[in-house]
């Protein structure tokens, strides 16, 4: 008997996890934490695996919105996507211009302070700091609005094709937090709503690589 289908996949047991996602209505981007604390590079890899990148606060309003709305899940600090090439010239790994910062005190300098962290608890909450690459911290992932459905990360034309469906099914079956398209936080976190969500995002297209 063949039972593979949306309904059968919807019954797959997926462990409960903290996958709280929020969408910023101003830019349509999704923000969520990496599942585990790791190095800055590890967090960046996890962000890429989720279809995004370590968060870039390119405007004061984006930072303010995140501090008010992202569930930081008890973390005292998280990685952002900024780094210093060693010359005191900070940059976002995404390539966006680094035009704004909320350093606690003076801008960090030195080889032990080249990766940007965001303080998410205590009296310095909201301020940024420089840290060594090791952490470990969880990372704040930012996922662009139009590209969630580009599951396989392809850049050719068309960007969205059947490979993205296969990719989504595989990641769903694997319990990958990418598949939690609707951002639900209560079990089962992965269910049929995530298929509906994926289909809607696929239909909406993916115009920005
Ligand atoms: Ca951003």
CATH fold naming of the largest domain? Mannose-Binding Protein A, Chain A
Shape: globular
CATH level-1 class of the largest domain = Alpha Beta
Beta-strand residue percentage: 15-25%
> Which structural class is indicated by helix and strand composition?
alpha+beta
Distance between the termini: 41 Å
Rg, nearest Å: 18 Å
Taken in chain order, the helices and strands follow as HEEHEHEEEEEHH
Features:
209 residues; alpha+beta; Mannose-Binding Protein A, Chain A; 2 domains; 8-stranded mixed beta sheet; 5 helices; globular; disordered N terminus; binds calcium ion
Any overview of this molecule?
By secondary structure, the chain is an alpha+beta fold. It has two domains: 21-143, Roll (Mannose-Binding Protein A, Chain A), CATH 3.10.100; 147-204, no CATH class. 24% of the residues lie in helices and 17% in strands. It has five helices and eight strands; from the N terminus they run H-E-E-H-E-H-E-E-E-E-E-H-H. Strands 1, 2, 3, 4, 5, 6, 7 and 8 form an eight-stranded mixed β-sheet that branches. Strand 4 (77-84) and strand 5 form a beta hairpin. The chain is globular. The chain starts with 5 loop residues before the first helix and ends in a 5-residue tail after the last helix. Calcium ion (CA) binds at residues 55-56, 58, 62, 142.
Topology:
Layout: H1 6-10, E1 21-23, E2 30-33, H2 40-49, E3 53-54, H3 60-69, E4 77-84, E5 90-92, E6 115-119, E7 128-131, E8 138-143, H4 162-173, H5 192-204
Parallel strand pairs: 4-8
Antiparallel strand pairs: 1-2, 2-8, 3-8, 4-5, 4-6, 6-7
């Amino acid at each position: 008997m063949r039972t593979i289908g949306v309904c059968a996949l919807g019954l797959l047991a997926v462990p409960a996890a903290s996958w709280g996602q929020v969408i910023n209505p101003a830019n349509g981007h999704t923000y969520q934490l990496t599942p585990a604390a790791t190095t800055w590079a590890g967090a960046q890899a996890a962000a890429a695996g989720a279809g995004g990148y370590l968060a870039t606060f390119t405007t004061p309003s984006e930072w303010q919105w995140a501090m008010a709305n992202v569930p930081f899940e008890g973390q005292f600090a998280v990685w952002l996507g900024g780094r210093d090439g060693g010359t005191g010239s900070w940059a976002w790994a995404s390539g966006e211009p680094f035009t704004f910062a909320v350093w606690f005190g003076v801008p960090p300098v030195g080889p032990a302070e080249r990766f940007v962290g965001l303080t998410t608890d205590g009296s310095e909450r909201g301020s940024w700091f420089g840290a060594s690459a090791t952490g470990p911290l969880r990372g704040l992932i930012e996922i662009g609005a139009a590209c969630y459905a580009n599951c396989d990360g392809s850049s050719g034309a068309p960007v969205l094709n059947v490979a993205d469906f296969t990719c989504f099914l595989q990641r769903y079956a694997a319990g990958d937090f990418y598949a939690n398209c609707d951002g639900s936080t209560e079990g089962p976190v992965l269910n049929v709503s995530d298929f509906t969500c994926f289909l809607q995002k696929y239909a909406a297209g993916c115009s920005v690589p």
